[in-house]
């Protein structure tokens, strides 16, 4: 396998600046700011994965890490479900990917199979759709979670999700560069 060549130029960005679906900030109000940044980070992860085949999405980073772009998508589907459905909304839904015997299944199960890729993106998008509708329906950002030993406000949950996506989008930057040399955005 040859090493990818690092590429950076406006002509090689994932999208041109004028076609970038993310905002440039400028949100007005606390809710708009939290929801806006979370939306932008979700879009960033999607952009980092765009145009790659199943094998490329499943490519691991440096050993012994099991991290891959596909693993991040699976992990974030699980994180969205746990925080919004299970903890905050108090719904009794099964975990995604993980079992008590396979605590890292969201990462380990990220294999270069098109069906695995399709499932991961479908589940991730379903969890995002639930979260967006749920947040829209909760009027007070101070509303506390329905479950959990340490109750969390919706405000803190949204901030936590921004942080979670920001961290993993940083990982995605490096993973994408390892796949095909693309950097930026």
Using the coordinates above, name the CATH class. Mainly Alpha
Largest sheet: none
Helicity level: 40-55%
Radius of gyration: 17 Å
Order of helices and strands: HHHHHH
Low confidence ranges: none
Please count the helical segments.
6
Mean pLDDT: 87
CA-based shape: globular
CATH superfamily: dinb family like domain
Plain-language structure description:
With 185 residues, the protein is mainly alpha-helical. The protein contains six helices and no strands.
Short summary:
The chain has 185 residues and is mostly helical. It has helices spanning 30-49, 54-58, 69-88, 105-108, 114-137, 154-180.
Task: Map the helices and strands.
Layout: H1 30-49, H2 54-58, H3 69-88, H4 105-108, H5 114-137, H6 154-180
Describe this protein with a few key phrases.
Four Helix Bundle (Hemerythrin (Met), subunit A), 6 helices
